[in-house]
Amino acid sequence: MELIHAIALAIIEGLTEFLPISSTGHMIIYSSLAGIAGNEFTKLYTVDIQFGCIISVLVLYHRRFLVTRTADYKAPAYLQSVPYQFQPMADFYSKLLIAFLTAAVIGFLLNDFIDSLLENVVVVAVTLLLGGIVLVFIDRIVNRQPKDGDVTVPDAIRIGFFQCIAMIPGVSRSAATIIGGMFQGLTRAQAAEFSFFLAVPTMAAASGYKLLKTYKLLQPADYQTLLIGNAIAFVVGLLAIRGFVSFLTRYGFKVFGYYRIAVGLLLLGLMAAGVKLDVL
């Protein structure tokens, strides 16, 4: 992989990881259009630059991950989060763990199948299209009074199952978990923030597992590329998070839905015209 492609992929990851448009799907599309070789390092790189995004969440929400009392927590003002009561740290971490384990077990069992889907642009095109249709109408579908209080244990379990849907490339982990949270009565902002928190253990496990499986194949230059990619994903991720919740709270999902539909139709049209977009 050339450095310019590595930089482009890192920008795509940082920008799209927290938006409901699928970071994996967009990296697969770019890799296919750019003709990037589908080797083990490419697959590792597209997963492990998530570390940069993980750090961006920890930096922006460091108080939430460190405070021990609800009264000590105040969400960053620039996120314009709708105020709600956080439960003590033990409950916070236990619910993240419950939601994470729900997806982790299923992800481990289906790891080989998921890897095979990462090579298929058709899957990405179809899921982008179908997911876009869902996002256009989701605010009408989920039309319930927001609940008071924090995420409950049953909420965490259900959101974990929603996250499993995002194992299909093109679905979007962010979209699946935010929508899952909204179905539990959370506001858009509440659901988005819980989605950010849940991204930390989920992406750390996926990135760490992938690195553990393939690190012996890496060359010294590969580690340098990974470091650069994660640094870029971190900076871009910071900027993406700072604007996303505010935009989502004001305007909802429709813009993202229309974008997904347009990209999905474009990809299907290109493939129907004979353009080869087969594998990563």
Derived from helix and strand composition plus strand pairing, the structural class reads: mainly alpha
Query: How large is the share of residues in beta strands?
Result: under 5%
Regions with little confidence, pLDDT below 50 for 5+ residues: 78-86
Name the helix and strand elements from N-terminus to C-terminus, one letter apiece. HHHHHHHHHHHHH
Span between N and C termini?
12 Å
Quantity of strands, as a count? 0
Mean pLDDT: 83
Fraction of helical residues: over 70%
Largest sheet: none
Shape: globular
**Number of H/I helices:** 13
Q: How big is the Rg? A: 18 Å
Written description of the protein model:
The chain is globular and about 50 Å long. Helix 2 packs antiparallel against helix 8 (121-141). It is built from 13 helices and no strands. It is mostly helical and 280 residues long. Helix content is 72%, strand content 0%. Mean pLDDT is 83; it is low at 78-86.
